[in-house]
Amino acid sequence: MTPLYLGWEYATPHQDPGPPPPRPVVPEPYRMSAGWLAAQRREESLLGRVPKIVVASTTSLALALVVCVVGGLVAAIVAAPAIAACLAAAVPSGRAIWRGERELRTRIDAEGLRVGRLRGDQESRLIAWQAEHARRAGRWRAQRFAFERQKRWYAVRVPDGIDRVDIAGGTLAGWSAVLMMTAAHRLAAGGEVTVIDLSGGAVAADLVELAAAARVAPAVWVLPRDLPRLDLAASLAPGELADVLALSVSVAQERSSARDLAIDTAILDRLIGVLDGAGTKRAKGTEAAEGAAERAESAEGGVIQIGRVAAALRALAQVGDTRGDVAAGLLSEREAGAIGALFGQGATDRVVLERAIGMEAQLRKLAGVGSEPVRLPRGRLRVVAVDKRASALSATLLGSFVITALTHLIGQAPASGGQGKGGGASWQHTVVLLGAERLRDDVLDRLTDACESARCGLVLAYRSIPPQVRQRIGRGNAALAFMRLGNAEEAKAASEQIGSEHRFVLSQLTETIGTSVTDTVGGSYTSTVGDSASTAVSTSDNESSSSGSGRTSESASLTAGIAASTAWGVSTSRATGDSESLARSMQRSREVVVEPAELQRLPLTAMIVSYASATGRQVLLADANPAIGSLPLATLTPKSEDIGHV
Question: Lower CB density within 10 Å: C or N end of the chain?
Answer without folding.
Answer: C
